[in-house]
Amino acid sequence: MRRSGRPSLRRRQDMDTSDSGGVTPLGRKTAETGINFTSTTRFSRGLTFIRTHTLFGQSPARRIIPQTCLLQENADPQKIAFLLRKQWTLYSVTPMYKFSYGNLKEYSRLLSAFVAAEKRKGLAVEVGNDLGIKVTLSTLLGLKGTDQDQVAILVQIASRSQLPCENAEDKVVWSGWFCCISGDDLLESVPDDFTCLSLFLANGAESYTAIVGSWFQKTFDCYFSHLTISPLNLAWMAAMWTGCKVDSHMAATELVFSVPCIPQSLDISYAIHPEDAKALWDTVQKTPGEVTQEEVNLFMDCLYSHFHRHFKIHLSATRLVKVSTSIASAHCDGNIKVLN
Amino acid sequence: MHQRGTAKNPKQAFQVRRSSLSAWQIEERTAGRKTVDLKRAQKHEKRKQQSASVQPGNSTQDHLEQALTYFERVKDYIPLKKNEVLQKHLTTVESIALQRGLSPEGLDVLLNVALSGHLADTVNTRILKCLIPASVIAENSVVSAVSRLCVGKCSGSTQLLFLRWLIAMFDFIDHKEKLHALYGFFFCSLQDEKLCPYVCHLLYLLTRRESVSIGFSLLFLFFQGMQPHLQALLSLYKLFCPELVSITLPAKTKTYFKNSESLWKAAINTIRRRNQGTSPTSQQLILGTGHPQSRKRKWNTQLILPACSADTNNPTRSKEINHADILSHSESFPVEQLHTFSQLLQNIHCLEFPSQMGSVLRNSLLLHYINCVKDESIYLRLYYWMGQTLQEECTWYKLDNQQYEEEFKDFLDIVYKTECFLQEGFSSCEEFLYKSLPLWDGFCCRSQILRLVSWIPLSSFSEMKPHLCEPLAQLFFTSSLYFKCSVLESLKELLQNWLNWHVIQLDMESDPKISPLNTTLSGLVNSVAELIHFVGWIATVALRLENNATFLLYFILDFYETVCDVYLKYNLPLLVMPPPGVFYPALLSMDAVSLNQLCYIMYRYRTNLVAAKENELIKKTILQFKFSSQTYQEYNQYIMAMVGCLWTSSAFQKDIHPQGIRLDPEVLKKTKVQEVRNSFNIVHHPALMGYAILFLQQVRVHLTGLQGLKLFIESSINRVSQVSQTKSGNAQV
């Protein structure tokens, strides 16, 4: 299945909501025996908590779907609407050092100048001046899974229109946002100097993403890496999104599989009527509000056998590369689009 | 004064040529300044006195005095043509200046006349070209020269030459406070197109943190263009005031200023040599941190290791620094300026960490610093960065890995060197190994990966086993002899690192009352024991696979040389005997080196066991850690087999080890080998055959070079005689 040999998603890069069965065998072992050598070596001091969580990229066996609305009341509907219906490229970000929510304005000024300087290589720019480019950092309230989660941050690059028209509005040319993945056990033990906004989503020209990313890397000593989604996680998404109720427009549930062929790879698109998919999922899911790995496997196996009956093709031997439902769509390359 | 100036000077950030003249300047400065401040009349007197006291033969000095007096008296325009007096004096000044340099007051006189406009341009040029200081240049002379520029009497080319001279001689000016006061004047001269590059260079040398005001930086933006000299100055402004200016320098530019020094270069070098005794290497003018930014990535444009630069962007952190300034009246010391160990010692209280912690890997001074700072955030920053970098750069996750492999190798080498330097493994590295070893082909970056294995921090072995041992064992069994030996070597180093770590821990926690030590110690003993057992297991299998190759056996026995001394050398109550699959191939080896190594190992085992027994007897108290009787038993079985084999010629009869070489007499008979009993004793052992022949040839009694065998014979075979001598001789080892 995993032809490219890419590393599977690490736990803290998982995009889904909280996990309950998250203790790895390692964590348990250490706790039981009470022997913990690593705590005595300096470079590992205080890092034990991370070991237990990131060492192995296993997906949790079970996830709870929160019954409460993820969006809290203080959310700005305009901003949230802005996030919808856009193709976002995913990046994972290590905790940021000395990031302060109080300095967003100052960061905006500096980042504006940095972007302008990068764009006009070799020419210095004055910080805070009108550069034709304006970067704004703002908070995205209400996007929290749990209370401990850090507040999400929205970064927008707007370019001023050239015409000196009075009500000419700035045109957003690039946007990106950082958010905290709820259920991130990292949070509890990370010192105060660090801010965990481990997921970064970008929409717009990659050159801007690179500029903004390198500024964050330089300023807050963090590391951006492109995030891919493994077929296993895509299957999870397919199952969980199928199970969601959608009131308005219903789009078909579509799964795209890639067949490694020479000279050109072959893509198989498998579209299912959303109601049929939902009906199948309802028969598979045992406890409402909870999804297990077995259920996900069973759901996919049912779809595979149905497909095999008609086309005599074993989809289980191919690679799931894309999932799209009425709720959202996700591609294994790390692109995601939330529709509803 | 000067020292402080150099240390805090921004120029170092860009590695601009600066010489350290402090050593000799301190002496010269006082004298120099005094003389310059003297009034003219006094100077005349002094000169007269000097000339009066001139020693015979020192007439050049006289000529110089005359010339200087002549130039000093110039009040009106004097043409050069047909003016023999001027010609003569000019030649005198030139020849002496190039030979010995000029005194501060001489320079003062000549500077004044050159910029006065009284002389022809060619004369001015000749004068400026020979303005070479013997020691220092008085600041006052420079200031008055600059004031003459303002009068505007001298031509453009003379002004230009003066600026070049000023840049070249910058380091020889004794003070710079008044020059700094002229910053605004120089700044205004930027408008002059011809002077601009040199003014930029001068400003670059003059700029200090406090000179960068809002006004200057804003004004300066008017002048800017793509010219490198302007970019260089701007980038300096940015360094001091990131909140005012932002600039990205194009990567390809290397030189930012025109060379002003060329005219005086030889002369300056002569002066320096004379003044310092040694010839300082002329440093090149390089801007930036010096890493070429050729990079394939669109994203993450820097090399794997970020460049070491101070934290200037983050207002949160700069604010903190300011706050600290108020409290301690000291500025933080930027990392770019840290070049020597003494600088580190002087500034260790106010050292700033780089904005990207990963850059410390290249900077051994900062690694020293890290070693003495107890700040958890340092390790966390390193941990996050390194973990991600290893994951992202790891070659065997990439399809087109050819391109990146060399780079990744370099990175792993740096990580390994850092671990050696700090004598400690990184946990991000450990995690990387655990995650990546199962996917490793055992070929890519082999030596780097195996070396990193040796720095895996000591942890419980049950945790290590599935992630390290299993993938490693799989590769081990299926790979070449050379790979096997490399793995054994790195496991030996791993063991040694663990043991060293334990010894250091013991030193630090010498207080026996600390109770957690006990649990840790038992855990430690278990882990070390399991590692040794693991190596014993793979060694046994490998010996079979490789037909007891001597090369392999050497690495295995090398490992056991560490194992047999764990108790005495590392103070760890643990002794693990080699498995029979290692012991017997070594004993019956065809090679003297292996046999000798085995004998040495058995000798060390004995020393350790005897010491342990003695300790038990002396202390009488119940020791928490005691070697089990099984260890002694195993040792005794081996030693009996060994003595039987090498000495008493009864190897096939007396070996009582269950996996030993005991054979039925019936079977032995069937082999039809004559004198089976003797075939492995010290005289007939195949490994020692060469020595036996040598012995016969040379009839020499002592066994050259076989120290291990000698020790073994002394300790285990001649024991009977020893026991009779010292009755107290212990232990039925």
From TrEMBL, chain A:
<protein>
    <recommendedName>
        <fullName>Centromere protein L</fullName>
    </recommendedName>
</protein>
<dbReference type="GO" id="GO:0005634">
    <property type="term" value="C:nucleus"/>
</dbReference>
<keyword id="KW-0158">Chromosome</keyword>
<keyword id="KW-0137">Centromere</keyword>
<keyword id="KW-0539">Nucleus</keyword>
<dbReference type="Pfam" id="PF13092">
    <property type="entry name" value="CENP-L"/>
</dbReference>
<feature type="compositionally biased region" description="Basic residues">
    <location>
        <begin position="1"/>
        <end position="10"/>
    </location>
</feature>
<dbReference type="GO" id="GO:0000939">
    <property type="term" value="C:inner kinetochore"/>
</dbReference>
<feature type="region of interest" description="Disordered">
    <location>
        <begin position="1"/>
        <end position="31"/>
    </location>
</feature>
<dbReference type="InterPro" id="IPR025204">
    <property type="entry name" value="CENP-L"/>
</dbReference>
<comment type="similarity">
    <text>Belongs to the CENP-L/IML3 family.</text>
</comment>
From TrEMBL, chain B:
<dbReference type="InterPro" id="IPR012485">
    <property type="entry name" value="CENP-I"/>
</dbReference>
<feature type="region of interest" description="Disordered">
    <location>
        <begin position="35"/>
        <end position="61"/>
    </location>
</feature>
<dbReference type="GO" id="GO:0000070">
    <property type="term" value="P:mitotic sister chromatid segregation"/>
</dbReference>
<feature type="region of interest" description="Disordered">
    <location>
        <begin position="275"/>
        <end position="294"/>
    </location>
</feature>
<comment type="similarity">
    <text>Belongs to the CENP-I/CTF3 family.</text>
</comment>
<dbReference type="GO" id="GO:0034080">
    <property type="term" value="P:CENP-A containing chromatin assembly"/>
</dbReference>
<keyword id="KW-0137">Centromere</keyword>
<feature type="compositionally biased region" description="Polar residues">
    <location>
        <begin position="50"/>
        <end position="61"/>
    </location>
</feature>
<keyword id="KW-0539">Nucleus</keyword>
<feature type="compositionally biased region" description="Polar residues">
    <location>
        <begin position="276"/>
        <end position="286"/>
    </location>
</feature>
<keyword id="KW-0158">Chromosome</keyword>
<dbReference type="Pfam" id="PF07778">
    <property type="entry name" value="CENP-I"/>
</dbReference>
<protein>
    <submittedName>
        <fullName>Centromere protein I</fullName>
    </submittedName>
</protein>
<dbReference type="GO" id="GO:0005634">
    <property type="term" value="C:nucleus"/>
</dbReference>
<dbReference type="GO" id="GO:0000939">
    <property type="term" value="C:inner kinetochore"/>
</dbReference>
